[in-house]
Amino acid sequence: MYRKLAGAIAVLATAATSVLAHSWVDCVKYDPINEVCLGYPRGYPGRQNVNINTLYTYIFNASPVSQPMCSPVQQASTNYSSTFPMATAQPGETIYTTWEQNGHLDNANPTKVFVYYFPQSSQQFTDVSQRNTAKVAGSMNFATNDNCYVPGYPNTVCLGSWVVPADLVPGQVYHFVWFWYFNANPAGQWYSTCFDVQVNSASHVVQTAALPDLMAKGNPNINYVWGVTDQVNALIANTTMLANPNQGVLPVTTPYTSQPPPSSTFVPVPPALPAPAVPSTSSSTTAPPSAATSTSPLKCIPRPSPL
Ligand SMILES: *[C@@H]1O[C@H](CO)[C@@H](O)[C@H](O)[C@H]1NC(C)=O
Ligand SMILES: *[C@@H]1O[C@H](CO)[C@@H](O)[C@H](O)[C@H]1NC(C)=O
């Protein structure tokens, strides 16, 4: 009995001191109106894979000068399937990308996500240092009341919008990285998800609107990260050309109402790893482009146990 209790306390202590996070892009191109995913990141295993946390979490610890930009399962830019296809989009198209907040909601000092890309389709991301030379297709908050469906729910879906650069050339595949500056300390933790976009002159464009209106439908059903269906493929196939000035804008209709989390069980996080050591000499030449004012490690709220 005592031993059991001591073990539980040790586990709790580990969880309390851990600052590790677990998040990645689940859907590169989300359609908030139809509540479906039209394109996934590289080597995406799907949320039905119970090992997705260990397979797909990719961390940069202690601000490395050099480390592969993409996780081992995201090295191949062609690692897509008919179930988890690459996104197709037009130059100038607004894209909604989703992830889970995993307990990292922060309204006061939200952590930042950047979408980096190279303007030449031939250029691949190989090393994390390339974020200093890559271009930025978008920057967004990671998790706030404004971009997460059910802010009080640790596993709610959050989303951000960015725009496919207008000068990308149709007919080519371009390479992108979603880069999350979870911890902006010199000992920082960052996370990446690599993805690619087939740029075409026509594509299925999703309706745009202010986020509260797009999010009025509530947290997406977990099915959206289980792969595309025939119905989604039909949607993707029904392409259109972006009219000037841009894709259709949804009129403001429904007020935002918070909805209960989906009934499906979520994949639990793996055991916490030790927190990174803060380097004694901080020669911080690789300071992230924002949120650099934070000086104390962010706290990771543990996920609830699976049902
Ligand atoms: C492709 O993705 C799958 C699923 O995540 C992964 O198991 C596999 O290692 C990946 N292959 C390559 C070559 O990256
Ligand atoms: C294709 O898109 C057009 C324009 O949005 C729409 O009117 C039509 O119903 C769509 N067709 C299918 C099969 O989804």
Structural notes for this entry:
The chain is of the alpha+beta class. The chain has a domain at 24-237: Coagulation Factor XIII, Chain A, domain 1. The strands form three sheets. Strands 4, 5, 7, 8, 10 and 11 form a six-stranded mixed beta sheet that branches. Helices cover 11% and strands 21% of the residues. It binds 2-acetamido-2-deoxy-beta-D-glucopyranose (NAG) (2 copies). Residues 234, 238 line the site of one 2-acetamido-2-deoxy-beta-D-glucopyranose.
Structural class: alpha+beta
Bound molecules: 2-acetamido-2-deoxy-beta-D-glucopyranose
What share of the residues does DSSP label as strand, in percent?
15-25%
**What is the β-strand count?**
11
Query: How does the major sheet shape up?
Result: 6 strands, mixed
Rounded mean pLDDT is 80
The level 1 CATH classification of the domain at 24-237 is Mainly Beta
Biased composition (Low complexity): 278-298
Biased composition (Pro residues): 258-277
Protein name: DUF7492 domain-containing protein
Signal peptide: 1-21
Descriptive tags:
307 residues, alpha+beta, Coagulation Factor XIII, Chain A, domain 1, 6-stranded mixed sheet, 3-stranded antiparallel sheet, 4 helices, 11 strands, 11% helix, disordered N terminus, disordered C terminus, binds 2-acetamido-2-deoxy-beta-D-glucopyranose
Short précis:
Keywords: Signal. The protein is of the alpha+beta class and 307 residues long. The chain is 11% helix and 21% strand.
